[in-house]
Amino acid sequence: MDRNMEFYGNRALHLEDEFTSLQASKILTILACSAPHPGSLDISDLWRWISEQLASRKPEVVDVVVQEVESLLRVRQFRIPFWNTQNAIKELVFNLDKSTSTPQMQYQIIFCLWLLTFEPEIASKINKLYDIIPKLTEIAKAAVKEKVIRVAIATLKNLVEKAPSENLAAMLVAKLLPFTENLSTRKWSDPDILEDIDYVKERLQENFQSLTTFEQYASEVETGKLEWTPPHKSETFWKENASRLEENNFQLLRQLARILSTATSPVILSVAANDIGQYSKYASKQGKRVLQEVGAKQRVMELMTHEDQDVRYQALAAVQKYMHQAWYVSYIFSKC
């Protein structure tokens, strides 16, 4: 790209006239994509401008810039700079979440995610930061267009191939395994879809067999997708594993507290309150202190007045377990 063209093009991006700035972005995109040595280009200003436009309330503007992202991400050297652009991925995923998102827009955005996930650095972090595995799974389940399912599965395949340890457990939590088993029985016009489906399904089956019960539980907590799976109610599970919530500076316990503070789903709140109560029965003295420091104890007490009956019940039960354990410890010490 000619340096003068790059300079004047970048200036044109920031003109008040929307038509001119959009035309400038198209020209800069074409020039960047056709550059003989893309690794030597600095398109950070273009990426920042695109990131801002992804937040536009005008569908026609978003449509243009998503097409530009598609084109630019085909060039591998441009992927990490886009990933590192403030709010770029956030706004891209937000547009995927919009209820007004058309099948074509879904396809285009997921295509962008597919290109990004060829990079191991991105594949290892994108779900943890932007929760894309359950999003892609739900979109594929609801999709009518075969091409939307195809690109969603292809993206999930990339996540498995490039960063299996970071993504397989989250896929099991998102119930991707039964979905891929269902997809593998359908007829497809494109045989490549079935290859990708079978690959993801087989890797999930292998991982499911090797995951311990605690690893499955930890994946639920890490993703925030809590459900009434067997470990939550198992006394044996908590007796054997409660102390593991204290590993890595109480990482899982702190995540449970975050879920309690941010979740709105009554089911998730009920399960989280239950888990805090179960943990309290076996918590160390330091663990009890952490519960107070992160606000989990206070939050559980607040949930005793929640509008949902089961949330109230689980919160009350958790407080009772906490108070009983505190009394029991005091009683034991008084006898020493």
TrEMBL record:
Record's protein name: Armadillo-type protein
Species of origin: Phascolomyces articulosus
Alphabetically ordered keywords of this record: Hydrogen ion transport, Ion transport, Transport
Domain of life: Eukaryota
Gene Ontology cellular component annotations, sorted alphabetically: fungal-type vacuole membrane; vacuolar proton-transporting V-type ATPase, V1 domain
Ranges for domain ATPase V1 complex subunit H C-terminal: 211-327
Gene Ontology molecular functions: proton-transporting ATPase activity, rotational mechanism
Family annotation (InterPro entries): ARM-like, ARM-type_fold, ATPase_V1-cplx_hsu, ATPase_V1-cplx_hsu_C, ATPase_V1-cplx_hsu_C_sf
Family stated for the protein in its record: Belongs to the V-ATPase H subunit family.
